[in-house]
Amino acid sequence: MAVQLNTLVREAYEHVCPVPPAAGAVPAARRQVATLLDDWHVSAEIVDDALLVVSELITNAIVHALPPALLRVSWIREDAFGTLRVEVSDKGPALAAGRCPPGVDPDEHGRGMEIVHALATRYGLHVAPGAITRWADLVALSDGAGASHLFPDQRTVAPPR
């Protein structure tokens, strides 16, 4: 008698890096993440949105929070679904809620988290003593032709923890 096992093809990648509170940090992080997403063969359908989410979460940490900030990007694929998670952790608000840092025009800022919420499949906030992590998930689906065109690389790399 033959037994068929239900098995999932699973890939997992993760990258963690500090984000300096300096001019040029956002474009540098975008370039780094764009390279990672290409190396990981992340579905092209979510790459532009992912880079915008990276920009908004890092900008939020640099403008509104205490340093240091830490960027964590992970890509997990199981069968026909792929989930890209972008997380940015910081030390919490630098100013009281509703206040803008000096030199920041409130008319020019304040929509970043709305953009993240609009682009993400899921999003959230994790508060721990001395740290706040804002995260967003972007999910890519196969078009029914099989996952191979979205996820051509079948290597598995265990994420560091």
Description:
With 161 residues, the protein is of the alpha+beta class. The chain is built from three helices and five strands; from the N terminus they run βααββαββ. Strands 1-2-3-5-4 form a five-stranded antiparallel β-sheet, covered by helices on one side. Strand 4 and strand 5 form a beta hairpin. The longest helix is centred in the middle third of the chain and has 21 residues, at 44-64. It is globular and about 65 Å long. 25% of the residues are buried. The model is unreliable at 142-161 (pLDDT under 50).
Question: What are the defining features of this structure?
Answer:
alpha+beta, 161 residues, globular, five-stranded antiparallel β-sheet, disordered C terminus
Q: So how many helices?
A: 3
* Structural class estimated from helices and strands: alpha+beta
Query: What kind of sheet is the major sheet?
Result: 5 strands, antiparallel
Strand content: 25-35%
Please bin the fraction of helical residues. Answer: 25-40%
List segments where confidence is low: pLDDT < 50 over at least 5 consecutive residues: 142-161
Number of strand segments: 5
End-to-end span in angstroms? 41 Å
